[in-house]
Permease (Thermoanaerobacter wiegelii Rt8.B1), 230 residues
Amino acid sequence: MIKLIGILIIIVGFILKLDTLAVVLIAGIVTGLVAGVPFPKIVEILGKAFVDNRYMSIFIISLPVIGILERYGLRERAAYVIGKIKAATVGKVTALYLVLRTLAAMFGLRLGGHVQFIRPLILPMAEGAAMNRYGEIKSEDHERIKGLEAAVENYGNFFGQNAFVAAGGVLLIVGVLKELNYTVEALDIAKASIPIALIIMVVGTLQFFYYDRKFDQKYGIRTRSKKENR
């Protein structure tokens, strides 16, 4: 049981709000020493884990880049550009992103993300389309649009990624099923996931167009008055 001391260290460290990285590192070293692992071997294991997961640092590096882009008007320019497209609507913008995001996930391409794409780019485009079509919209509808854009990222990523044979979720499913004595390969899981990915693109698109219709009904008078003024 003493080998589980690392868990206790992590719990205490989090309760005391200590530096997360330091707490996890200390917990790993202490666990290794208690388990009788030589210190050089512990360092080697930690180094290998860092190298194997170094792609996570790419996400961290992207955050300040996105912050700088937002600081210098990325959101405003995205809304301005989409506002120039008269036929653009919230539903069309969101449905197009759903298709692109799902297809990218199916081919294992890391396109998208709430932080990298939704907040700085897709959400402003959807809001710009709404404001271009209806003028000012109520705060509650701004929140609905935020919810739709958060949902579309989840739809595309969650249902599309399992159609890629090397996706982590696929490998996890294969591992669990093989432990339960089911004969299955990653390709089998990917093939079974393709119809689901196609279905979510259709269902999601219908949902987004449904909200277009709701917004048209709610702000229809305003839309007609804008056309009459032209």
